[in-house]
Amino acid sequence: MHTSSPLLATALIALAGAPAAVAQQRPNDRLDEIIVEATRLAQTTAEIGSSISIIDRERLDELAFPYALDALAHAPGVTINQNGAFGGQASVRIRGAASEQTLVLINGVPVNDTSTPGGGFNFARLDTENIERIEVLKGPQSTLWGTDAIGGVVSITTRRPEEGLGGSVFLEGGSFDTFRGGAAVGGAGDTGEFRIAATRTETDGISKADEDNGNREEDGFEADTVTLRGALNLPREARLSADLLWTDAESDFDSFVFGAQGNVSDGDETSFTEELSGNLSLSLPILDGRLTNLFLVGYSEIDRRNVSNGAESFAAEGERTLLRYQGTAFLGEQHTLAFGLEREETETTSDDTTIDGAFLLYEYQPIDPLTLTAGLRRDDHDEFGAETTARLAAAYAINEAITVRASWGEGFKAPTLFQTTFFCCGAVAANADLVPETSEAFDIGIDWRNERTTIGASLFRQDTEELITFSFAVGGYENIAEVESQGVELTIEHALSDAFSAALNYTYLDTETGTGDSLFRLPEHAADLTLNYRPNERWRGTLLVRHNGDEENTNGTTLDSWTRVDLSGSVILGERAEVFGRIENLLDEDYQQILGYGTPGRSATVGVRYRF
Question: What is the secondary structure of 239-282 as a DSSP string?
Fold first, then answer.
């Protein structure tokens, strides 16, 4: 550990001067009222030692972004990249870890694409309309969730119905001939609950390849999304639940052209993607509720194909089946024990693999303000053998205003099916010597809050080894890379008055590979400033200023920093109707997220929603 680094000195000064909140929320919210699902122990944010950001439904409404990708960029420590707006390949990176090292859960089911080389998740199609909450758990979390959670976890929960029977319908339209609309109906009562919702988006879009480089062809995007939710309350407080999320999308993209900026230029290319994820679960409490049993069957699949100049140029399919049991035992007021077994079967058109896992988590509260958490997990891969990971965390509320936190954890990521089977360039077989990637990380934080203000800081460091990269020398993939990442996350949120509030997030990130280079497409400095105005329950307005610092490109050049301003607002008319709108890139900033790919200029959308 480089304890003499300038980063550590800076971080310690920051920690001493500005205590940290690791969970984003309103200044008046209590940290101990938000239950976090991603920790598997149903802990409150006041009990979690790890750093976590929570983007709830209220925050999603304030930000008013149609896609989860842009909402995730609001969380400190998270970097997004997209190969062109409106359906371009979109990745999420947590504290410098690769996008393939971020495990994505939808209602507890892993949805990472098993058919891609790295096994990452494409966030381009994930609509926010039917999302209730997004939790970003940072750092290695393999003890909780197994493989792929080497850099962090993005846990997404879809919306649940309110009491009684009701629904809503919305329509919006705007720049680039964009249309978005949807409807939902649901209800909840003593018997159970149900919710059915559908959304559709279509737009002419802009050129994926930057228009400033002479690319004039519009690349359109359209997507249909359906979510289903059902639950039945059974005798003795048992509950049977089911969730389903289906997306069908079509996105135009531009061609690979060697020598063009970013090697991308106008071309007749279209991708077609169909995604499905769901689960069926039974919650069965026994022993007067002291032991809760959860049985879950989960499934996710993806079907992708590309068409170039009217002919199919690529096709891939992948699916994942999950069997899970978790028991949670409440052993008095001080002790909680969670234990479980999981079996994950992954399949593509060419191969399949299986991982069996067993985990044990223990929460101990020796005194009321102190929560200690420990975990151990063993995963057995049918090809790469067994991996054991551990996790420790602590949270201590010094008083009602100050809480300190610390956590340490390990992670691993098994090679993907593609990496274990692909070879080229003169090789006669895939590399048989691949081993899983591994990581180890810690973070410490402190948060301070009162009725109007939340101030926080956290310091983190992560070391990742045995990174898998493509090598022409071996004609396939090999373990050659290592990365060290460290940084500081600062958050300040303050209610200026009953109507005005402001929030500032800042991230400093320093990354270094084994050769001494920085990682590509990661800003050293990133910040978000949000100003909210809500004079009453009917009116709401939000101004978001987002800054992304310089980033190094893969070709040795530097992508310039940029600052974008977005404005959104809504007004409720009568008892059931709402008019809303947003202006993105208000100041018409000309910028790129990835070299060669353009981003929209100033654009606007207006819509109406009716609840019944």
Answer: EEEEEEEEEEEEEEEEEE-TTSGGGEEEEEEEEEEEEEEEEEEE
CA-CA distance, 223 to 87, in Å (whole number)?
A: 9
Judged on CB neighbours under 10 Å (0-12, 13-18, 19+), 521 is: middle
Strand segments, DSSP code E, in 309-369 are 311-331, 335-348, 352-364
Contact present, 395 and 403 (Cβ < 8 Å): yes
Give the C-alpha distances (Å, rounded to integers) separating 391 from 45, 137, 338, 360, 457: 17, 13, 14, 10, 21
- Per the rule left: phi > 0, alpha: psi between -120 and 50, beta: everything else, 108 is left
Angle, CA 610 vertex, CA 605 and CA 612 arms, to 5°: 160
Listed in sequence order, the residues at least 6 apart from 46 whose beta carbon sits closer than 8 Å to its beta carbon are: 30, 31, 32, 371, 395, 397, 403
The string of pLDDT tens digits covering residues 131-175 is 999 999 999 999 999 999 999 999 999 999 999 999 999 999 999
Largest CA distance in the chain: 70
Structure tokens at 124: 């381009």
Distance, CA of 57 to CA of 134 (rounded, Å): 9
Q: Is 200 exposed, middle or buried (0-12, 13-18, 19+ CB in 10 A)?
A: middle
Helix, strand, or coil (residue 63):
helix
Q: How buried is residue 515: exposed, middle or buried, by Cβ count under 10 Å (0-12/13-18/19+)?
A: exposed
Reported as a single tens digit per residue, the pLDDT across 393-416 is: 999 999 999 999 999 999 999 999
Distance CA 306, CA 316 (A): 9
Return d(Cα 67, Cα 82) in angstroms, integer.
12
Whether 294 and 324 have beta carbons less than 8 Å apart is answered as yes
The phi, psi pair for 15, rounded to 5°, reads: -65, -35
Question: Residue 9: its pLDDT value, please?
Answer: 37
Which pair of structure tokens corresponds to residue 23?
Answer: 């969970």
Amino acid at 67: Y
List, as one string, the DSSP characters of 276-322: EEEEEEEEEEETTTTEEEEEEEEEEEEEEEEEETTEEEEEEEEEEEE
In this model, does residue 1 exceed pLDDT 50?
A: no
Q: From CA 68, how far away is CA 70, in angstroms rounded?
A: 6
CB neighbours of residue 427 within 10 Å: 15
Q: What does the buried/exposed string (b/e) look like for 565-601 if buried means 16 or more CB atoms within 10 Å of the residue's CB?
A: bbbbbbebeeeeebebbbbbbbeeeebbbbbbbbbee
Evaluate whether 413 touches 389 at the Cβ level (below 8 Å): no
Indicate the DSSP class of residue 189.
-
- C-alpha to C-alpha distance for 51 and 489, rounded to whole angstroms: 10
* pLDDT tens string 12-55: 333 333 333 333 333 334 345 678 889 999 898 889 999 999 99
Q: What pLDDT, on the 0 to 100 scale, is given for residue 318?
A: 96
Number of helical H runs and strand E runs in the chain = 5, 33
